[in-house]
Amino acid sequence: MINNSGSLLKAIYALFLLSGSASVASVEQQYPVTEQVLLSDGTAVSTPFHVAGNLTSAFLSILKTNQAKKFIAHSEFEPIEIACNGTGTNQSIGVLYFQDITQSPVGAYAETVNTIAVKRKSAQALPLPCLPKHASKRQQMQYLLAAQQIMAQANANNLQQGIPSDYAMYNQDLELNNALAIKAGLEIWGYPKSLAEINHWVGKHYVDIQVGDVPDYTPIVELSYLRKIGTQTPLYSAGDNVLPQYLTPNTNKAAQLMEILESKSGWVQPFVGYFWVGPSNSKTAIALKKTGFYPVAVVEYTNVVGVALPLYNK
Length: 314
Prior knowledge:
By secondary structure, this protein is α+β, with helices and mostly antiparallel strands.
């Protein structure tokens, strides 16, 4: 079992794949805009792609491996599976993100991103400890958070060499309320994005989020959670996003991206709230249902700035 105090909190600083100490220079200074990419409608999008937002929340869950593998379109990757004594447990790791983006090259937008922890099939199994079959929600939270540090350590050597990581969070589906952001995501990176209606409210003590199909607003997911009930922590992270190969616009586009995120205020805490997947036929709703997603932990950051960078080209 993972120690349930200091070691857990040390793992949290490395949010979802790799982190280090924030440098004095801002994200904007470290990664200045170098070019304009034209979309099919003539819209110019500055890259690297810089964003700023009010809130980024990540909801962590244990998934069913046999179902999670059905939602990975990239043939080189498979779900990271938790094993005990060398035997698979049909348990994998998933994260559902919510972001309230206030500034970007394509304007403001809100989005959800459903992700699955994956490994390159040619890579060694990630050295995760065994998770007890009947682990409590708190034990699951501790396990999921510490697993991110293990993933970060496994990726460190690749990142230093500037080559793709072997372990990553695979973006299965993104739901956004900005049509131009969807176009940019599809044409520049090949992200599987869909238009949705997203309503959210951020209060002092809780957050409410409602996502529905367009135009009929069939519910995709609804959730609310208590805020500031865990441990406060800053954020400086760098993580890879794996792109579905069949959505990559052409062979010159990056098949894997690196994203940098920074925030001086955040919380790591158990999920205390309400979570419901609606009857929508969206890719997000179907995947959340089939994989058995239910959050046990929340990592929340406010006033986030970030940038998306190509990590390598095919």
